[in-house]
Hints:
This protein is an alpha/beta fold.
Amino acid sequence: MKTTVIFPKYSKKELPEKFKKDDNRFPEDYVEYFINKYTKKGDIVLDIFAGLGTTLFVAEKMDRIPFGIEIVEERYQFIKKNLKNEANIIHGDALKLLEYDIPKCDFCFGSPPFMGKNDPENPFTAYQEEGSYQQYIKDFQKIFSQLKEVMKPNSIIAVDVANLKNERGEVTTLAWDVGKSISEVLHFLGEIVIIWEGRESETVNGRSEPWRVEGTWGYGYDHNYCLLYQNK
Ligand SMILES: C[S@@+](CC[C@H](N)C(=O)[O-])C[C@H]1O[C@@H](n2cnc3c(N)ncnc32)[C@H](O)[C@@H]1O
Protein backbone atom coordinates (compact mmCIF):
# COMPACT_ATOMS: atom_id res chain seq x y z
CA MET A 1 0.00 0.00 0.00
CA LYS A 2 1.26 3.47 -0.83
CA THR A 3 2.23 5.43 2.27
CA THR A 4 1.68 8.88 0.72
CA VAL A 5 -1.52 9.77 -1.10
CA ILE A 6 -2.49 13.10 -2.68
CA PHE A 7 -6.03 14.48 -2.54
CA PRO A 8 -7.50 17.83 -3.57
CA LYS A 9 -8.62 19.65 -0.41
CA TYR A 10 -12.14 20.39 -1.56
CA SER A 11 -15.53 19.15 -0.46
CA LYS A 12 -18.02 18.61 -3.25
CA LYS A 13 -21.17 18.93 -1.14
CA GLU A 14 -22.54 22.46 -0.64
CA LEU A 15 -23.23 23.37 2.96
CA PRO A 16 -26.02 25.50 4.43
CA GLU A 17 -24.78 29.03 5.22
CA LYS A 18 -24.73 28.47 8.99
CA PHE A 19 -22.04 25.75 8.73
CA LYS A 20 -19.75 27.53 6.29
CA LYS A 21 -17.77 29.45 8.90
CA ASP A 22 -16.84 26.22 10.66
CA ASP A 23 -16.38 23.84 7.77
CA ASN A 24 -13.83 21.27 8.97
CA ARG A 25 -14.93 18.43 6.71
CA PHE A 26 -12.49 16.20 4.96
CA PRO A 27 -12.83 15.70 1.18
CA GLU A 28 -15.15 13.00 -0.14
CA ASP A 29 -12.34 11.54 -2.32
CA TYR A 30 -10.28 10.84 0.79
CA VAL A 31 -13.11 8.89 2.43
CA GLU A 32 -13.90 7.03 -0.78
CA TYR A 33 -10.29 5.89 -1.15
CA PHE A 34 -10.24 4.20 2.27
CA ILE A 35 -13.77 2.80 2.07
CA ASN A 36 -12.80 1.16 -1.24
CA LYS A 37 -9.65 -0.24 0.31
CA TYR A 38 -11.14 -1.73 3.44
CA THR A 39 -14.79 -2.57 2.75
CA LYS A 40 -17.18 -4.17 0.28
CA LYS A 41 -20.82 -3.45 -0.53
CA GLY A 42 -23.13 -4.07 2.42
CA ASP A 43 -20.38 -3.56 5.04
CA ILE A 44 -20.96 -1.32 8.04
CA VAL A 45 -18.88 1.88 8.20
CA LEU A 46 -18.67 3.85 11.44
CA ASP A 47 -17.59 7.44 12.17
CA ILE A 48 -17.62 8.29 15.87
CA PHE A 49 -16.88 11.99 15.18
CA ALA A 50 -19.42 12.34 12.40
CA GLY A 51 -19.10 16.14 12.01
CA LEU A 52 -21.02 17.23 8.94
CA GLY A 53 -21.42 13.64 7.83
CA THR A 54 -18.86 13.13 5.07
CA THR A 55 -17.99 9.53 6.01
CA LEU A 56 -21.66 8.59 6.37
CA PHE A 57 -22.79 10.21 3.12
CA VAL A 58 -19.93 8.69 1.10
CA ALA A 59 -20.46 5.25 2.70
CA GLU A 60 -24.17 5.34 1.85
CA LYS A 61 -23.45 6.41 -1.72
CA MET A 62 -21.07 3.44 -2.03
CA ASP A 63 -23.79 1.01 -0.84
CA ARG A 64 -22.27 0.52 2.60
CA ILE A 65 -24.30 0.95 5.78
CA PRO A 66 -23.30 4.10 7.68
CA PHE A 67 -23.34 4.57 11.45
CA GLY A 68 -22.17 7.65 13.30
CA ILE A 69 -22.07 9.66 16.51
CA GLU A 70 -22.06 13.45 16.68
CA ILE A 71 -22.17 15.54 19.85
CA VAL A 72 -23.35 18.86 18.41
CA GLU A 73 -27.14 18.89 18.01
CA GLU A 74 -27.31 21.03 14.88
CA ARG A 75 -24.65 18.97 13.10
CA TYR A 76 -26.51 15.79 14.09
CA GLN A 77 -29.76 17.26 12.71
CA PHE A 78 -28.03 18.16 9.44
CA ILE A 79 -26.79 14.59 9.00
CA LYS A 80 -30.13 13.06 9.97
CA LYS A 81 -31.95 15.20 7.42
CA ASN A 82 -29.60 14.21 4.60
CA LEU A 83 -28.99 10.51 5.34
CA LYS A 84 -31.24 7.76 3.93
CA ASN A 85 -30.35 5.59 6.95
CA GLU A 86 -31.48 8.42 9.19
CA ALA A 87 -31.81 6.24 12.29
CA ASN A 88 -28.09 5.40 12.10
CA ILE A 89 -26.82 8.79 13.21
CA ILE A 90 -26.72 9.06 16.99
CA HIS A 91 -26.76 12.34 18.88
CA GLY A 92 -24.24 11.42 21.56
CA ASP A 93 -20.77 11.32 22.99
CA ALA A 94 -18.01 9.05 21.66
CA LEU A 95 -16.75 8.70 25.24
CA LYS A 96 -19.98 6.77 25.97
CA LEU A 97 -19.71 4.58 22.88
CA LEU A 98 -20.80 1.36 24.59
CA GLU A 99 -24.09 2.90 25.72
CA TYR A 100 -25.36 3.04 22.14
CA ASP A 101 -26.95 0.35 20.07
CA ILE A 102 -24.43 -0.04 17.25
CA PRO A 103 -23.97 -3.33 15.36
CA LYS A 104 -20.50 -4.81 14.92
CA CYS A 105 -18.77 -2.64 12.32
CA ASP A 106 -16.42 -3.52 9.45
CA PHE A 107 -14.50 -0.24 9.20
CA CYS A 108 -14.18 2.92 11.26
CA PHE A 109 -12.99 6.18 9.73
CA GLY A 110 -13.02 9.64 11.22
CA SER A 111 -11.27 12.74 12.39
CA PRO A 112 -11.43 13.81 16.04
CA PRO A 113 -11.80 17.44 17.10
CA PHE A 114 -8.28 18.91 17.40
CA MET A 115 -6.60 20.68 20.34
CA GLY A 116 -3.46 22.82 20.59
CA LYS A 117 -1.28 22.05 23.63
CA ASN A 118 -2.16 25.34 25.38
CA ASP A 119 -5.83 25.56 24.42
CA PRO A 120 -8.17 25.90 27.43
CA GLU A 121 -11.29 24.12 26.11
CA ASN A 122 -11.98 20.39 26.00
CA PRO A 123 -12.62 19.40 22.34
CA PHE A 124 -14.62 16.33 23.40
CA THR A 125 -17.28 18.61 24.91
CA ALA A 126 -17.46 20.52 21.61
CA TYR A 127 -15.22 23.12 23.31
CA GLN A 128 -17.99 23.92 25.85
CA GLU A 129 -16.03 22.96 28.99
CA GLU A 130 -12.51 23.51 30.25
CA GLY A 131 -9.92 20.84 29.69
CA SER A 132 -6.24 20.07 29.46
CA TYR A 133 -4.17 18.66 26.64
CA GLN A 134 -3.01 15.77 28.89
CA GLN A 135 -6.60 14.77 29.68
CA TYR A 136 -7.60 15.09 26.03
CA ILE A 137 -4.80 12.73 24.94
CA LYS A 138 -5.81 10.24 27.67
CA ASP A 139 -9.44 10.38 26.54
CA PHE A 140 -8.44 8.90 23.19
CA GLN A 141 -7.69 5.67 25.02
CA LYS A 142 -11.09 5.70 26.72
CA ILE A 143 -12.80 6.12 23.37
CA PHE A 144 -10.71 3.75 21.28
CA SER A 145 -10.65 0.95 23.84
CA GLN A 146 -14.46 0.88 23.60
CA LEU A 147 -14.12 0.56 19.83
CA LYS A 148 -12.52 -2.86 20.39
CA GLU A 149 -15.99 -4.14 21.32
CA VAL A 150 -17.90 -2.27 18.65
CA MET A 151 -15.65 -3.32 15.76
CA LYS A 152 -15.49 -6.80 14.20
CA PRO A 153 -12.31 -8.83 14.91
CA ASN A 154 -9.42 -7.78 12.65
CA SER A 155 -11.32 -4.81 11.24
CA ILE A 156 -9.47 -1.56 10.45
CA ILE A 157 -9.82 1.71 12.32
CA ALA A 158 -8.48 4.79 10.51
CA VAL A 159 -7.91 8.05 12.37
CA ASP A 160 -7.27 11.29 10.51
CA VAL A 161 -5.09 13.67 12.51
CA ALA A 162 -2.47 16.41 11.99
CA ASN A 163 0.26 18.13 13.91
CA LEU A 164 -0.61 21.79 14.47
CA LYS A 165 1.50 24.90 13.98
CA ASN A 166 0.17 28.27 15.05
CA GLU A 167 1.05 31.78 13.86
CA ARG A 168 3.91 32.02 16.38
CA GLY A 169 5.43 28.85 14.95
CA GLU A 170 4.56 26.78 18.04
CA VAL A 171 3.99 23.15 17.19
CA THR A 172 1.62 20.75 18.92
CA THR A 173 2.70 17.20 18.13
CA LEU A 174 -0.93 16.15 18.06
CA ALA A 175 -0.49 13.39 15.48
CA TRP A 176 2.37 11.80 17.45
CA ASP A 177 0.55 12.13 20.79
CA VAL A 178 -2.78 10.78 19.53
CA GLY A 179 -0.97 8.03 17.61
CA LYS A 180 0.91 6.83 20.70
CA SER A 181 -2.13 7.06 22.98
CA ILE A 182 -4.33 4.92 20.71
CA SER A 183 -1.43 2.49 20.06
CA GLU A 184 -1.65 1.48 23.70
CA VAL A 185 -5.15 0.06 23.19
CA LEU A 186 -5.26 -0.93 19.49
CA HIS A 187 -2.70 -2.59 17.21
CA PHE A 188 -0.93 0.12 15.16
CA LEU A 189 -0.36 -0.79 11.51
CA GLY A 190 1.36 2.45 10.44
CA GLU A 191 0.53 5.82 8.96
CA ILE A 192 -0.41 7.09 5.52
CA VAL A 193 0.65 10.68 4.80
CA ILE A 194 -2.20 12.59 3.18
CA ILE A 195 -0.97 15.46 1.04
CA TRP A 196 -3.48 18.21 0.36
CA GLU A 197 -3.16 19.50 -3.15
CA GLY A 198 -4.50 22.59 -4.81
CA ARG A 199 -5.88 24.26 -1.72
CA GLU A 200 -6.02 27.95 -2.47
CA SER A 201 -8.13 29.39 0.30
CA GLU A 202 -9.22 28.76 3.85
CA THR A 203 -11.99 30.15 6.02
CA VAL A 204 -10.80 32.59 8.68
CA ASN A 205 -13.45 34.18 10.90
CA GLY A 206 -16.07 33.37 8.31
CA ARG A 207 -14.12 34.95 5.44
CA SER A 208 -12.41 33.17 2.60
CA GLU A 209 -8.69 34.04 2.60
CA PRO A 210 -5.65 32.71 0.74
CA TRP A 211 -4.35 29.47 2.25
CA ARG A 212 -1.55 30.19 4.68
CA VAL A 213 0.50 27.15 5.53
CA GLU A 214 1.63 29.08 8.61
CA GLY A 215 -1.96 29.97 9.57
CA THR A 216 -3.75 29.02 12.76
CA TRP A 217 -6.81 27.67 11.01
CA GLY A 218 -5.89 24.93 8.67
CA TYR A 219 -3.29 23.08 10.67
CA GLY A 220 -0.20 25.02 9.69
CA TYR A 221 0.74 22.05 7.51
CA ASP A 222 -0.50 20.98 4.12
CA HIS A 223 -0.48 17.30 5.02
CA ASN A 224 -2.34 15.12 7.53
CA TYR A 225 -1.79 11.58 8.76
CA CYS A 226 -4.20 8.73 8.41
CA LEU A 227 -3.25 6.43 11.29
CA LEU A 228 -4.26 2.83 10.69
CA TYR A 229 -5.08 0.42 13.50
CA GLN A 230 -6.39 -3.13 13.56
CA ASN A 231 -8.75 -4.64 16.08
CA LYS A 232 -6.65 -7.64 17.10
C1 LIG B 1 -13.13 17.31 12.70
S1 LIG B 1 -14.84 17.22 12.92
C2 LIG B 1 -15.26 15.86 11.86
C3 LIG B 1 -15.59 16.29 10.46
C4 LIG B 1 -16.03 15.13 9.60
N1 LIG B 1 -14.91 14.23 9.33
C5 LIG B 1 -16.63 15.63 8.29
O1 LIG B 1 -15.98 15.47 7.24
O2 LIG B 1 -17.71 16.21 8.35
C6 LIG B 1 -15.00 16.50 14.50
C7 LIG B 1 -16.42 16.37 14.98
O3 LIG B 1 -16.42 15.65 16.21
C8 LIG B 1 -17.49 16.16 17.00
N2 LIG B 1 -17.23 15.77 18.39
C9 LIG B 1 -16.48 16.42 19.32
N3 LIG B 1 -16.51 15.75 20.49
C10 LIG B 1 -17.28 14.66 20.30
C11 LIG B 1 -17.68 13.59 21.15
N4 LIG B 1 -17.29 13.52 22.43
N5 LIG B 1 -18.47 12.63 20.63
C12 LIG B 1 -18.90 12.69 19.34
N6 LIG B 1 -18.58 13.71 18.49
C13 LIG B 1 -17.77 14.67 18.96
C14 LIG B 1 -17.41 17.65 16.75
O4 LIG B 1 -18.63 18.29 17.09
C15 LIG B 1 -17.10 17.71 15.25
O5 LIG B 1 -18.27 17.81 14.51
